[in-house]
Amino acid sequence: MSKKLLIKNIRSLVTCDKEDNVFKNVNLYSEDGIIKYIGKDIFEADEVIDGKDMIVYPGLINTHHHLYQTFTRNLPKVQNMELFDWLITLYEIWKGLDSETIRYSSLVGMGELMKSGCTTCFDHHYVFPKDASEELIDVQFGAATELGIRMHASRGSMSLSKKDGGLPPDSVVQSIDKILYDSERLVKKYHDRKDFSMRQVVLAPCSPFSVTGDLMKESANLARDLGVRLHTHLAETKDEEKFTLEKFGMRPLEYMESLGWIGEDVWYAHGIHFNDDELKRLADTKTGVAHCPISNMKLSSGIARIPEMLKLDVPVGLAVDGSASNDGSNLLEELRVSYLLHRLNSSKNAPTGYDILKIATKGSARILGRNDIGELSVGKATDLFMINTNRLELVGTQYDPKSVLGTVGIKGAVDYTVVNGNVVVKDGKLVSIDEEKITREANLAVEKLINKA
Ligand SMILES: [Zn+2]
User: Which of 48, 128, 348, 433 is the most buried if burial means most Cβ atoms within 10 Å?
Assistant: First the structure.
């Protein structure tokens, strides 16, 4: 069945296309999740949305998350810690994760993302407790389908426990064989490499201090055999830099490069502590960075050198990171904070509000390896969100719709989110699930998890 959607009389359509077009008073027509027309003509459709007061933007794309962490937010004992102590403390709770906590935390985290304009979510799940089901990523894909969001999941992993000089406890690390076997199973079962795909799989060992060099190397080999992308945390803290220098005599990027982890099929979360030569190396190899400003501020990790990266054409995307260091999943908030942080740090060299929007759309699409999302033009996916400009808090902001998300910011939920041509958020509410029921059930699951620890 061919599903037809018409959004008519759009007040401003911010396309993020090559020419940076912003169209006024146009109609957007979509069939089967693909944009077929933008212009003045009218088409018959199954669903028609009136855009007369609306700004329409390309859907935001989240490039780093740990959805399970929505269950360990705002915990008093970790609020004043930096990354390593924060991780060591939280692993004691995370080792109790199971299918139920994964399902509800995925619904909660991706639900909040969709309410803040996100249409594609990448998640980095790497905690596979010994007693939990083997199929936690399968559960995540199930949650994404329930919500109607496009999902790139990863088979994350940890193989270096405390007794071998790593950070995590024994009960959450796995053998290389087990990890690689499950990685291949997931790619074969879920990875759809076609245009407009709703599900992709990434291989994502957790970090240099929770994974052996062998696992990094083997994961890179397997990912390249299977034709999927690679992701991990890198250059997040000075502690990590000290760790790789002491253990391997190399800086983090040099260490990862020695394991085959560089190139346009690789992107790193954070990328804060790169020096000038390393930034150039990233640019030359088109290795990407997922920028997570709120997490970096919360954990006092530092400020990623985004203005320099953009100048050098290092691929950069935006991300909320896990909810234990954010402590939310709101990409619109991330966008605004990113804008302000770089204004403070770089003044005239800071990215504009529109530059940050492009990081969160086209930039993010680029590091996920996708050409079919991240902008609104004919032939691209119908992934978008809409903001009704008739809001008290937007009075006086009408002169620059493409920058307003950074400069002014949107407080509260978006009016509509559309993924693959389907309305998934309407009037600020998720369409396919009962938010109040899921909230109640999720809070009960949170209690169970916290009481286990
Ligand atoms: Zn992370």
Answer: 128
